[in-house]
Amino acid sequence: MSNLMKAVQIKQFGGREVMALNDINVPVPAANEVLIKVKAAAVNPVDWKIREGYLEGMLAFEMPLTLGWDVSGEVVEAGADVNNLNVGDAVYSRPEITKNGSYAEYIVVTATEVALKPAALTWQEAAGVPLAALTAWQSLYEMTNVQAGDRVLIHAGSGAVGQFAIQLAKLRGAYVYTTTSAKNTELVLGLGADQAIDYHQEDFSELKDIDVVFDTIGGDTLANSWKILKKGGRLVSICDMPDEAVATSHEVSPFFCFVQPNSEQLTELAKLADDGKLKVNIDSEFPLSDVAKAHERSESGRAQGKIIINVSA
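Predicted structure:
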């Protein structure tokens, strides 16, 4: 193995032009880390928001920074204290977001953030799971605790997070409404949604007595979601911090989810995938040299599933 690898990095915040494909040293795993040969990575909106500098005040980054925080690959080296993973293991992860990411031929990840890859999924499909599916899991299972019989509204059900959210809510036995465009109605119903609301033609805010709202859009969508909740309902947003005072006035519970690495939850998601209970839709694939085009696709807001970066065969 060469001591050098290709990695897409930024040296400053800015537009897509600040990304460069560089030759850098292969990282060396610490005692509690594994070195993963990256097979595939995925692009998420947080990637280009970090690149633009939107999260500079929230998180501490060191430059140059390798982007990308979804990965599937093979363990090629394990630190001295790692006993849950072995060289040769096929794995996937959503690594710690302040560290160098997965737009690279190799990545070091803390072993407790890594789980065995779902055997039923390709490298590309597996790379598309961690960040989006963990976001849905932590929002619906941990924060709002969706239960059988709950009436749940998931905004933007055709997006990557929305697609996993629909499936996870249905697995809990919820009745699922989701907002989407008419062209994506078949997609969201195929994932298990009970009712699709075409946001071009229908007003979701006419719904009543909703138990849980999962906001993936923010702004006016979040503002118009409070009144549809029943008293004692729950709202979780992944975009804007919900207003506690507004929540109190509606007698509902507000939550904000900024997804965290979690290998145990990844293991549970892998079981669901291997049991055929979790579908992964891929929108598009790009080589490592075309990350700028992948970001452009993500920024368009039109992706119907995961945007994948193919790193190695």
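Summary: The first strand starts at residue 4 and ends at 10.
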